[in-house]
Design goal:
371 residues, alpha/beta, 2 domains, eight-stranded mixed sheet, 12 helices, globular
């Protein structure tokens, strides 16, 4: 009898606790305003779908409602982080969807990169040089991935020099600029794949020195804190407990006077985009984020030199620092436009220097580049 009463009491407590938990979540959901942007996942949340008979009949309303409820779930970020931390800390899981956290720094482990894509990209760079730039000076440089600074024994994600070997084999008529000695793990954000603009002054200096022989004075630059709540691409993808990065911007008289022309919008704008800070990716502060084709003009330079920069997203933060050496820099992102279109949009014979500047991250997985 006593056992039966205790069992009923226990069951009642469980049922009541579960009911209170559901009620609490329901009340919290009702009382919590819908969020528009996820800073950690760097995307827009799904919003309450608009009801209509047509949406209900074709099933889109229920699909959209499911996305909405998943995105606006109270404590979503906390649950995602708790799942990752429990799996890696207590159940021996080495990574979270190929991401690891070492000393509060997030890394992506790319074990499946393609040697075939690396070789093809090196070949395509060489074709571009032969077709359009045989009479100008062509340079190339590789930006090391954050994971290359991890222990190779524990995390064998390095390329063993394969990327550089392929580039040197195919770009024999171009000049290689070695950036590896000028970069360390501390030059990258903890929660993102990119380098910090304030940490790449040495990189800008060596690039300008070898391409232009330009004397470069870092005292010309002023460092400003843009945001102390920068959650990079790895923060949302990995869902580890981590602290945000600080994002700084470097400015100078040259940068403040520079004029940027966006070929997509056919508009002139500034080098930096403060309005992007509160968007899905604060790194878009540098040169407005993903853009297929941009031109930066430096009215304070009169050396008549122009640079054509083939780049990925890393180029957004370093290109402004190269303006001191050129009257004009044009940035081409082959992820968003085909190289075949260049002769239609640009007078390629006007460029004095050409630089292929790509990260290992893109070169190892270069299928997105359009040749």
């Amino acid at each position: 009898m006593q056992k039966s009463w205790s069992h009923r009491m226990y069951s009642g407590v469980v049922v009541c606790s579960f009911f209170l938990l559901l009620t609490g979540f329901a009340i919290a959901a009702i009382g919590t305003p819908d969020k528009e942007i996820s800073k950690s996942e760097r995307r827009y949340y799904a919003q309450m779908p608009e009801w209509s008979l047509a949406n209900v009949m074709d099933g889109s309303y229920m699909r959209d409602m499911e996305d909405y409820l998943l995105d606006q779930f109270v404590g979503r970020d906390s649950f995602r982080i708790a799942k990752t931390e429990i799996e890696t800390s207590f159940f021996g899981k080495k990574d979270a969807n190929n991401y690891v956290k070492v000393d509060d720094i997030l890394f992506e482990l790319d074990y499946d990169w393609s040697k075939k894509q690396v070789s093809k990209t090196a070949e395509e760079f060489a074709k571009l040089q032969k077709l359009h730039f045989s009479d100008v000076q062509v340079y190339y440089a590789v930006i090391p991935d954050k994971s290359s600074f991890l222990s190779e024994e524990e995390y064998p994600v390095g390329n063993g020099g394969f990327i550089l070997t392929q580039l040197k084999e195919h770009l024999k008529e171009a000049s290689y600029i070695d950036l590896y000695p000028y970069l360390s793990l501390q030059d990258y954000y903890k929660t993102d794949l990119h380098w910090k603009q304030e940490s790449i002054l040495d990189v800008a200096e060596v690039l300008l020195s070898q391409m232009r022989g330009t004397e470069w004075n870092r005292d010309n630059y002023t460092e400003t804190l843009i945001t102390s709540e920068f959650f990079g691409a790895y923060a949302g993808a990995a869902a580890y407990q981590t602290t945000p990065d600080e994002l700084y911007g470097l400015t100078s008289e040259v940068i403040e006077n520079a004029v940027v022309y966006d070929f997509e919008s056919n508009k002139e704008t500034s080098v930096y985009a403060p309005e992007k800070i509160d968007g899905t990716d604060a790194y878009d502060y540098y040169l407005w984020g993903a853009r297929a084709l941009l031109t930066m003009e430096n009215p304070l330079c009169e050396n008549g030199k122009k640079l054509l920069l083939f780049r990925d997203s890393f180029g957004s933060s370093i290109a402004p620092l190269l303006l001191e050496g050129y009257e004009e820099i044009t940035l081409v992102d082959l992820r968003y436009m085909k190289a075949d279109y260049l002769p239609q949009l640009l007078e390629l014979s006007e460029y004095h220097d050409v630089l292929f500047l790509y990260s290992e991250n893109i070169l190892r997985n270069s299928g997105s580049l359009k040749f």
